[in-house]
TrEMBL record:
The chain crosses the membrane at residues 80-104. This is Uncharacterized protein. The keyword Transmembrane helix applies. Keywords: Membrane, Transmembrane, Transmembrane helix. It comes from the Eukaryota. InterPro entries: TPR-like_helical_dom_sf (IPR011990).
Length: 584
């Protein structure tokens, strides 16, 4: 019995095989066709409702595992591939489309605002940005942001004068101006004056335009300062300091403290420094020098420096007269009066004489100014007329554009878009004999306004003539504004003559009204022969006032300014994105 109990008992259950790394092959009838791809493989059949996972799963993990089956794996892969392809296409096509639109906008701007081919691409973009910020269709009647314009002009001028970029071949002028410019915000050395005679003509013309634009921007921003503490720009009238005892409070939308005078510097150097630099630059022609002198003298008059302004005007008149073969037979260099029997006149001569007349009128020298304006007006009317200009067709907008005309215009624009932009040739010299074209009508209207004001103020016997001339100036200005054959700049410039003429006409009416309502005085014999009776004055000012209000209503009804804005917008309406990207 003892031996039998010592024997090993037979195991009723078979021994399990040892654990091995590789799973044994599974029988197909024990597994479903749709395998759970996210669950661990097991040798036993998987019944989810009977055999829950050993470890605790997070919420939603089991549901996700049930979805990832072999049947849906191909769908997930296709969806992921399509998403990746679409994302890659967007990442490639979106920058390409943006660059294409930007290139189209740049080409359109290059056609509207041409730049010299010698300039680099960045310099061209700077000039486009500057001109776009001053475009009336972009600003929509608002004042330009001169802070951005001045800073962009600084970047452009530094590139043009950099010998490593656009200024290759420039030489420093021996007559470099030495002047104390004072501290200012811009990092720009304008004391260097160059000799640009070795550069091509388009480069010289573009450089002159940049310098003159910088001088005018300095005029417009002379009342702006930069606060070094808050790093912001303010108007000088808001600065708190000894030089401004009554500062203007800041606008409620400005969430900044008023600047202190010790922390502020001017935005840019004075306009005088830029004008002096232009005049000292070698390589400019007579037209550019005369234009600079006239702009410089106008700024000096605004600064109450009348003596210096008159000397510059005399110099401009001298330069204009030096181009004439026999100047003494055309103009009196002392008085600025153009001879009545002058064989011809030049545009520089007329511009210089007109500017001198305005300067004399502002300084109470009305007799000398009236003589100049009358001679200028006579010179304009005696100029020969260019018949080829009058024969050009005048375009008008009828409200609807035929489809074939519209498609032809689009094809022409796209063909021009693919062609190179040619920089416009230099304009004809203003020292040539003047031929009367349509664009001279605006300057003639301005001369008529000046002459009529002075004639009305200096001669009571010729007041009717002055009133007649002011109406003639209004009609001339209206014709020039309505003439679509003139350039947009000429029409905008002549549009400013209309309110000026209306204001001058109203001042004349008020003076007639005051004389008619003044108490009667015992006039002398000569005075009674010259001066009108009270009844005639009363009827005159009532008639003139009625005509004046008719013109005012006509100006408000026609609204030439909005009409021209619509025509300029119409040119861009076929491609709205170009208008949105005009500001780079």
């Amino acid at each position: 019995m003892i031996q039998r109990s010592m024997r090993i008992r037979t195991n009723l259950r078979p021994l399990r095989p040892p654990n091995i790394r590789s799973n044994p092959p599974l029988r197909s009838f024990t597994r479903p066709t749709a395998l759970l791809r996210l669950s661990a493989l097991s040798t036993r059949p998987q019944l989810p409702y009977l055999a829950p996972p050993a470890q605790c799963a997070t919420p939603g993990q089991w549901q996700l595992a049930r979805l990832m089956t072999t049947e849906k794996e191909r769908l997930f892969r296709k969806t992921a591939w399509d998403f990746t392809t679409a994302l890659g296409a967007v990442l490639v096509l979106l920058p390409t489309g943006i660059m294409l639109l930007w290139w189209i906008s740049h080409e359109l701007l290059e056609r509207d605002i041409p730049t010299p081919h010698e300039w680099t691409f960045r310099s061209r973009c700077y000039w486009h940005h500057i001109k776009a910020l001053q475009d009336r269709s972009v600003t929509q009647g608002r004042l330009p942001d001169w802070t951005i314009i001045v800073q962009t002009l600084q970047l452009l001028l530094k590139r043009l004068e950099d010998l490593n970029f656009d200024g290759q071949g420039l030489t420093l002028n021996s007559h470099t101006q030495q002047q104390a410019l004072g501290e200012h915000y811009l990092d720009l050395d304008i004391s260097r004056v160059f000799d640009i005679s070795g550069k091509p003509e388009p480069w010289r013309r573009g450089y002159f335009q940049v310098m003159l634009e910088f001088a005018k921007a300095a005029e417009a921003s002379e009342h702006m300062v930069y606060d070094k503490k808050s790093k912001s720009f303010f108007m000088a009238e808001s600065v708190i300091g000894p030089s401004n005892p009554d500062p203007t409070p800041l606008h409620s939308a400005v969430n900044k403290a008023p600047p202190l005078e010790e922390n502020c510097v001017p935005l840019s150097p004075s306009a005088e420094s830029f004008y002096e630099k232009i005049l000292a630059t070698r390589g400019l022609n007579d037209d550019q020098q005369v234009e600079t002198l006239l702009s410089y003298s106008e700024w000096l008059d605004s600064q109450e420096r009348h003596d210096h302004a008159e000397s510059l005007l005399r110099k401009a008149l001298q330069i204009s007269a030096s181009a004439l073969p026999n100047s003494s037979a055309i103009i009196n260099s002392q008085t600025g009066v153009i001879q009545g029997k002058a064989p011809f006149v030049t545009q520089n001569l007329l511009d210089s004489a007109t500017a001198l007349g305005i300067h004399l009128a502002q300084n109470a020298k009305t007799s000398a100014a009236l003589s100049i304006f009358l001679s200028v007006l006579q010179a304009y009317r005696s100029c020969p007329r260019d018949l080829s200009h009058d024969g050009r067709p005048h375009l008008s907008y009828s409200g609807t554009i035929p489809a074939d005309v519209l498609m032809a215009g689009l094809r022409e624009k796209f063909s021009r878009l693919l062609s190179d932009v040619e920089y416009p040739p230099p304009p004809p010299s203003r020292n040539l004999p003047l031929v009367r074209r349509g664009d001279e009508g605006c300057k003639e209207a301005a001369a008529i306004i000046y002459a009529s004001e002075l004639l009305f103020a200096t001669s009571s016997s010729r007041q009717d003539t002055a009133l007649k001339w002011i109406k003639e100036a209004l009609e001339t200005a209206e014709d020039q504004v309505s003439d679509t054959s003139n350039s947009m700049d000429d029409r905008w410039r002549c549009n400013q003559c209309i309110p000026v003429a209306l204001d001058a006409w109203w001042d004349m009416i008020q003076q007639l009204k005051a004389e008619a309502e003044s108490p009667p005085q015992q006039p002398g014999y000569l005075t009674s022969l010259i001066r009108k009776p009270k009844k005639d004055l009363a009827s005159t000012w009532r008639r003139e006032e009625s005509e004046h209000w008719d013109w005012v209503r006509k100006a408000g009804r026609d609204n030439w300014e909005e009409k021209m804005s619509f025509e300029q917008w119409k040119m861009w309406s076929w491609m709205p994105m170009s208008t949105l990207t005009r500001v780079l």
